[in-house]
Structure formats: structure tokens, C-alpha cells
Amino acid sequence: MRNAAHPRAPASPALSCHRNTRHAHGDAAMPSADRIRSAAPRANPERFYRSYLCSGVTATFDVGGYPWTWDLRADAERSTLAPHVSAAGPLLSTHDHWLNLPAERQFIHIHDEASVRAGARFLAAHDADAFKVWFLIDRNAPDTAIARTLIRTAGEEAARAGKPLIVHATGLWQAKLALEAGAKLLVHSVEDADVDDEFIRLALRNGTVYTPTLVVYQGYQQLRARSFDASRYELACVDLVTRAKALLTDSLSGRPDAATLARMEALGRQRYRQMLRNVRRLHDAGVPIAVGTDAGNPLTLHGPSVRNYCLAALDSGVLALSGRL
What we know:
three-stranded parallel β-sheet
């Protein structure tokens, strides 16, 4: 049923925008309220398993989360009602994010070489399926040398542990530093500029997989406008709790004024066009493209968001996305 690779390794067969899809998800950049406030994902992951299988997804890669996400791997392998699960676990983060608990961290703050190595040892001790870096340093920061040190050290530790380095880097400068450090997976699009020849050369050298998460911002746009477009989703595949929360979107207070919404939508369209240009150029250059939605963000629903991603891929002119994780 799963057609997956080794139980503790990311799935390796080709990805495609057809049924029996492998899917990268779960980056914790801005999790949904459901994910922050509820223990349900931990206590009842089966509702998300059903959503994925119903949507034709037979293997998933959670690319950032609390340590308990590691436990899902073995549990899912024992069940014929679950997809294959790979999990990166806590993120090595250049930003000291607030989204942590007193006894459990989702983000391990890295600020110097020693903190990177300590965090990497923790990930290795738990047999994380990858070392994930949340790479948020601005290229105009006063000290960009530390950015190079942090990502280079993370790459060294990942190689030492025999784990892939995977990176959240949405700027071209940051993404190229990640590639120089040996990144095997970029979990988002480059959004601020056209990818250049150097980017392509580094990606091909590494065998890097590019996951453009083309639809994640569309969920934010719907939430901002307080307008949930149910026709975009196969809601029969969504569990009742998540479905009920999504359908409450239109009743939420705090809708921005029309001018603000128009401005934000224009910026969103501009960013989307940039993402489409980049995925098309990388596909044409032979860089593997993975199916990934960043599910767990507002209105990027686990399972059905894969269909929306594949429709977005058509917008880029890429008819069949394929890659390896």
C-alpha cells in the first residue's frame, strides 16, 4: 500500500502529482491555531493519516516539529491505515522563536558554532531523518559571517551523522549559502529573486530537491480576507474537527479594510508569479521538484492541499513534478 522506502528513512521513489504521492509537509514557520493550542495532533494523528490516504498520499515527510513527531514513525509503520512517516524533529533555528514549551522545544536556537554542534548531537541521538535549519538571517544583517558559520557547521554535522541537511531559506542569498553547505532539500520556494546559474549549479552538484510549497500563502490570503473557499478542497478527506474550524473562517472578526486586502493580494500575486518562474526554471534545468504544501499552516489542509499544489504546478507550466527525497 505504501510503496515506501526503509521505515526510518525518507521515501525515495519518484514523486509525482498523481495518486500514490509522497508529500513533504509540516514546516513550523507559522503553525495554525489548531496546531499551537491543541494536543490533538499528538493524541490523534490518525485523523491526519486518513486525510493523507484519502488524498492519495502514501508517504509523508514532516520537516520540522516537536520531538514527539519522531514517535509517529514507528507507530505509522505498524499500521495499514497510516502513510509512511519520516520526521526531522526540532529545527535548528537562527531565530529564538517563542513557540516552545517549558519541557519541550520545537526550535533549538543556534547562535554560534557550539550551539549548532550541541543541537546536532541531540538530533543525531534521536535518529532524526534529517537535520533541519530554519535559516532566517537577513543578507543585510550587521554580521553575515555568522550566517555562513552556522549553516556551514550544520552541514558538517549532518554529513558526520549521515543525515541530509534540509533548509528553510526563502531568499536567494540564504538559499545559496544553504546549497554551499550541502543542503539536500530546500523546503520552500526562493521568493525574492530569480534563481541564477550559480544556484542551479550548486543544486545539481548536491542533488538537491526543491520543494516550492506553492499554495501555502493562499491559505493565509483566505484567512486574512475571512473568506474560506470550500470549493478548492476535497473536504470529504478532511476530518470533522479541522473541517469545522475551516468553515468558521468567514465568521471571524478582524477583517482588514478593502484597501489593505487589495494591497496584500497584489503582493501575494507578485510573490506567486516569482515562485512559478523559479520552479519552471529549475525543472527545466533538471533540478528535482518535490510535492510539498506546508500543511498545518492556516487553511493549508493536510491531504487535500496536495491537489491544490498540483494545480499550481500546472500554472508554472510544469505538467509532471518529480523528485527524490
